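About this split. The held-out portion is used to measure sequence recovery: a designer receives only the structure tokens and must propose an amino acid at every position. Recovery is the fraction of positions where the proposal matches the reference. Here is one held-out target exactly as it appears in the evaluation file.
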């Protein structure tokens, strides 16, 4: 398989050389590229403004068979070991699968406990504020879901992870102990940021002696004993499978805090959207498979066109945290070069993923995209549900795509020329609801996995992150640890 990957990379470089001097406008107008928008159950994908021709697309669509993609997808959805460096299966698809409920007792149990919490627990009646102590995937997913629900919600949720406590202090200024509950979310329940913030909020609750903090404290983790050790009652614990990665944990109890303003049916809508994306990815032909095409184009843009960054721009306020979520999903998963067999990928792996709100970006970073010298590939994500405001945003999205890709020549005033030539795709949701959001997020998950299969790396480990945690703990326990790296002049005086 490694020889196959090396041959794929060689072919991609050759094809890239063939079109490196051809502008997107030339490819689009004369090539006859068969790139009609792809309509799935809940969204439409348009990749007609990518820097490819029909010959390139035909070759890209051969790659899934060369890497035995169908077999790998079957292993993923069956919950088999696809994280070989840690010898773990991967369970995020099982959390949204109907059949897994009967086969995996913990998933079945926890889904029922989520239902009970949202339907029966007095949290829905008594408390105004929820402090969610979380970081990484345990934070980005629930925070996205909370913002997606809009501004008019009865319960305010504050997400806190900062090590300097300023984020938590700012949140507590808006809270009273009698109106507040706390969720501590950590897969290992050993993450220093989580535990330090938990200690701080414990101290804050102690200021009101009439309240039993343990009654207000809930935990979500794969380690029940660790939660118990930090004062979380068994009845207030929600358990995760050890095979569930943090950046893929949105589908589990990790999302529970975000749904206190909704209900259990809303949570099921999210899962249903993701399940539909799973089904679609398994069944669609390669040429009509959005996840597959996104992965192939990502590898193409990074390796054949040497584009080292990818912008994601959203055109709806409810999606304002989506870029951060996809950024972590992409870069923590595929920001690697060597796999567990000590094989170094011949490819450039994932690009830098950045972006943000499209309208705001038009008045800042788009200037750099349009007239700077650095090329960027982009995903533009919008809504087209017939609502006037939504349509206005969508029209703005389309106009920016045209500027980014086709550009504008002004021979009289060259300084007004827009370079264009940035390969762009458009993902257009039919409606803005949780089912559609679940569908979109799951498509990006599969895109990341498929991309990793092409690159020859493991999407599901994160040894760089683990090293960072280890070094932080060493620095904490050994006062002289940092002296070997930095001059004492750069360190605070003890």
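Reference sequence for scoring:
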């Amino acid at each position: 398989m490694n020889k196959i990957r090396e041959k794929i990379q060689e072919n991609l470089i050759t094809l890239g050389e063939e079109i490196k001097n051809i502008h997107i406008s030339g490819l689009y107008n004369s090539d006859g590229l068969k790139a009609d928008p792809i309509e799935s159950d809940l969204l439409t994908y348009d990749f007609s403004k990518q820097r490819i021709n029909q010959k390139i697309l035909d070759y890209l669509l051969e790659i899934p068979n060369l890497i035995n993609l169908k077999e790998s997808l079957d292993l993923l959805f069956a919950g088999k070991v696809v994280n070989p460096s840690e010898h773990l299966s991967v369970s995020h698809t099982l959390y949204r699968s109907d059949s897994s409920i009967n086969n995996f007792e913990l998933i079945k149990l926890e889904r029922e406990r989520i239902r009970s919490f949202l339907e029966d627990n007095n949290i829905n009646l008594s408390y105004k504020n929820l402090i969610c102590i979380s970081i990484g995937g345990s934070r980005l997913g629930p925070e996205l879901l909370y913002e997606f629900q809009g501004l008019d919600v009865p319960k305010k949720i504050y997400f806190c992870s900062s090590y300097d406590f300023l984020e938590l202090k700012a949140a507590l200024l808006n809270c009273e102990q009698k109106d507040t509950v706390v969720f501590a979310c950590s897969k290992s329940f050993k993450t220093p940021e989580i535990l330090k913030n938990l200690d701080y909020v414990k101290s804050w609750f102690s200021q009101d002696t009439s309240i039993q903090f343990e009654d207000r404290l809930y935990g979500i983790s794969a380690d029940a004993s660790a939660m118990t050790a930090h004062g979380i009652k068994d009845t207030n614990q929600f358990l995760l499978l050890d095979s569930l990665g943090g950046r893929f944990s949105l589908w589990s109890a990790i999302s529970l805090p975000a749904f206190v303003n909704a209900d259990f049916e809303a949570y099921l809508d999210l899962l249903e959207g993701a399940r539909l994306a799973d089904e679609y990815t398994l069944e669609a032909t390669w040429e009509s498979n959005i996840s597959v095409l996104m992965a192939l184009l990502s590898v193409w843009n990074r390796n054949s066109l040497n584009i080292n960054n990818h912008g994601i721009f959203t055109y709806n306020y409810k999606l304002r945290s989506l870029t951060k979520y996809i950024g972590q999903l992409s870069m923590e998963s595929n920001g690697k070069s060597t796999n567990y067999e000590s094989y170094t990928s011949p490819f450039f792996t994932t690009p830098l993923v950045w972006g943000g709100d499209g309208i705001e970006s038009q008045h800042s970073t788009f200037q750099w995209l349009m007239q700077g010298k650095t090329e960027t590939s982009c995903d533009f994500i919008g809504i087209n549900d017939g609502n006037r405001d939504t349509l206005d945003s969508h029209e703005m999205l389309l106009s920016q795509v045209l500027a980014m890709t086709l550009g504008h020549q002004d021979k009289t005033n060259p300084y007004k020329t827009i370079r264009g030539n940035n390969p762009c795709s458009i993902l257009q949701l039919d409606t803005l609801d949780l089912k559609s959001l679940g569908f979109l997020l799951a498509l990006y998950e599969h895109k990341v996995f498929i991309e990793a299969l092409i690159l020859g790396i493991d999407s599901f480990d994160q040894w760089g992150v683990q090293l960072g945690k280890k070094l932080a703990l060493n620095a904490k326990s050994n006062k002289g640890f940092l002296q070997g790296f930095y001059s004492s002049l750069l360190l605070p005086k003890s």
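Annotator remark: The chain has a mean pLDDT of 89.
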